[in-house]
Amino acid sequence: MAFITATWNPLGEAFYRKSELYEMCWSIRDGLRDSLVAAAPYGGPIALLREPHRRSPSSRPQLEIYSASGVSITSFPWKSGPVVQLGWTVSDELLCVQEDGSVLIYDLFGSFKRHFSMGQEVVQNQVLEAKVFHSPYGTGVAIVTGSFRFTLATNIDDLKLRRLPEVPGLQGKPPCWVVLTQDRQTKVLLSTGPELYILDNTSCTAVCPPGLSPQAGSVVHMSVSFSYKYLALFTDTGHLWTGSSHLQEKLSEVDTKKSTPPKQMVWCRRPKSQQPSVVLMWDKLLMVAGVCNDTIQFPIEDPCVLVGELDGVRIISSTNQELLQEVPLVCQDIFKIASMAPGALLLEAHREYEKSSQKADEYLREIKEQSMLGEAVRQCVEAAGHEYDTNTQKSLLRAASFGKCFLTDFSPDPFVSTCRELRVLNAVRESSVGLPLTHTQFKQMTLQVLIDRLVYRQFYPLAIEICRYLKIPDYQGVSRVLKHWASCKVQQKDLSDEAIARAVCVKVGDSPGVSYSHIAAKAYECGRTELAIKLLDFEARSGEQVPLLLKMKRSQLALSKAVESGDTDLVYTVVTYLKNEMNRGDFFMTLRNQPVALSLYRQFCKLQEQETLKDLYNQDDDHQELANYYVTASYREKRLESRLSLLQSAVDEYNKAKNEFAAKATEDEMRLLRFQRKLDDEKGAGLLGLSLQATMEALLALGLHKQAEQLYRDFRVPDKRYWWLKLKSLAEKEEWEELEKFSKSKKSPIGYLAFVEVCMKCNNKYEAKKYVSKVTPEQKVKAHLAISDLEGAADAAIERKNESEMGVVLSRCSVSDRLLIDRLNRARASAAKK
Question: Could you give the CA distance from residue 118 to residue 95 in angstroms, rounded to a whole number?
């Protein structure tokens, strides 16, 4: 424990320590001098632009991107304009702010993504200074122009430029300024020397830090904390004022006894700490100043860069990288000299236990007597999370494991999760990976974001191992990693399409949540259409295949896939697309090769596009369907000439199709139409469009019997149908004499029972009786019953000796017909004996 506290430095009630993160892997000739450096928080990458203001075309500045451990990721000569500032977005994209106000965005591997401008006014006045900042809305950029005006873009992904108001009396570049995020607003705090101003959207307000000594002088440097809650101001007399960023509360004021402004000033504050501090850096000195009047001073030899983090400050030099942070309280309790905290006693007990010393029991008894064993285990687990050295982590976790053996109701979950998280953190902290995350940063970042960062940096095997080790569901873990890997794989130009497709299939397989169509879309974006088609063959969902095939102009393949899927909506989607994209001839020829699609399109045309249907039948020489189309179309025509013309076309097509019956029926329809028009003209009968039967009914109803008989003869209407039509017509008109004459004209093909029934339906019993005698013997009983003549029905039934007919008559008899009933019963009995 002694060597652990040897690197601790007290500051007020807190302790600060420097932990070495890496010996930098890079080899930088002149160190970080004369370079523009930007390092992303949360152990992010480092961008370095050497001699950014060099403008010689023969010797351009070199932009280099490294991991946090100094492993080179990419480098390329800077061919654009002079760069004022570098910065990283929250998604690890590099922003390069140029003098002309252009902001160029590159990915981690140096590929140009896009650019935007900070406004037309900036092009003329140039950018004097710029800052990249992070707010709740995303990554923003703030600049000062040559006209000493500020322009803000709060979120570069949803670009909205805001030009802030003028600062009164500002005649040059402000000595210092920072961006503040307060109350959902982004503001600028600046110093003009003796005065401080806050600029917001509409106003410029003079402010005064509370409690700043009158002799403090002008503010020449300022810094805002990682969370934007605290502000530090450094004056030209060496005074350091710290307080809330709202400038309503003072934390401290320290005299650093340094009159020159620091090169950098960064907050160093652990979350929930009551002892925030500020790290100031000069050429040869690093100073930590807190809320007390004391300071910690570290000598430095090489130029360094300070990177503010959530729970400390990273110090990057040309040779190594260190993390300066306040020692967490739980670590202080355990490792402080002569500490009697439960965690310290448990750690000591385990050390003695490993030596097989009985003192281990004495320490355990002391903890148990205080009933603090559970607290001791919790402290050791928590402290292990805050330690960077793996040996210290192991010592603390072994002590915690030793202590929980003596507890019966202790939940192992915190211990297990901390062990797993530390194993993950130790893996990503390796120099080859270069993500020096603390446990606090990891918790704030979340596991999903860590996986995303590993995937973005193409550490696919490590990302997959972490997902499997932590048992993350496939769709959130392994599948997501494989999806990104495959998307990058298809961009490799040194491999053939076949090799890439095979590799993707073998690696991805049937992983849930991975869409081959998404991977194929990436391949198509890279100009590898054939590879995209090969990948789509592995896609099980046709609904995903078809849209991309259409996008790739592989319409016939898309149609085949849609038909194979059996999804009619998908087929209609493809057919509609083809119809809009192809000329009509090619479109019809394409459909001919796909009978299912053609059939579906015909169904659609029948409902929506009749003319197209006609063209389809013409294209296929389908005379039968074309004739049917003409017949159907004729019914939609109002004018007789047009209708007859269409029907004549139908006749021609039926003849070509050798359908004689349909041709003859259509010709008959044409004759009927002409006959109807002639009668309409002569009699005003209104017959046009009626069927043959309806026409005859109408003629008989109008008393045009001759014309009805003409139709009967001309169209060879069956005798039975004609007699029925005339019978009903005469009865309905109550032309009984005509009906009687008609019945005597010749032998009725429909018999005479029909006459009886029709007369009774018209409530004329008298006329009905005239035809009963003419009814055949088989229908006599029915005829007599129809006119309610029970006696006659009984006589006919007895005469025919038909038991069933007698039964029918009996069923119609009432109680008053006793004599008739007896007679029928005797006849039935007599018939039964025989």
Answer: 13
